[in-house]
């Protein structure tokens, strides 16, 4: 891995947002630049759209796009008084579906714009997504709002989400990561927290590939997607596998300095090629963060 080469690629090929994040995280750039880039994706209702998560291009606000923004805002440690954060809180209050107890992950309007097939709406699709990203959005709402309506929403989500995870035997690594973030964001503030922590640890064991020969062959959970630092209690058990993941990342860098992606849209090919470039910028940041955590 050549960090200088990655930096040059980011400068010339990444979206302004990812280049600003790269500068902020690795080159002492200012967070204000990241904030200014991020706000371009925010709508008047406070939610985010416009392909912030590049696999669907719907301009309207949605839960996943807003979740992606929340992660960046948390990375920047913006105060809850920031207008971006205050607007997100209002979006989360008003877009919550009381009947289902979740924020709808996939909505019908996504089908009207170029998108990956895994973002295609069909009846009943929410069952595939569970509490992704609802349970993590609840954590941000609790962190950033003291509104009584927010408290009611958070309590409803946490009741359903904890009941859900305690009854399953396996969980997709994306949804599981939402629960992992919940435990980080609301440490010491959760009902049944010890039981929840133990269940997350149990589910992590089956959420990632343990065969290094499959790394990069298909889209799947990989060790560092689930084991996030050397402080993770699973790290000693899987230390050799983490090293294999690091080796894979170092060996799979393309000549231009970044990594390819392991999925296709299966439709809208011309738009996919644009999104692919955007994803390469996102993954460059993610992979360098991984490698730095475990070096």
UniProtKB/TrEMBL annotation:
InterPro entries, sorted: Terpenoid_cyclase/PrenylTrfase (IPR008930)
Gene3D superfamilies: 1.50.10.20
Protein's UniProt name: Prenyltransferase and squalene oxidase repeat-containing protein
Organism expressing this protein natively: Halolactibacillus halophilus
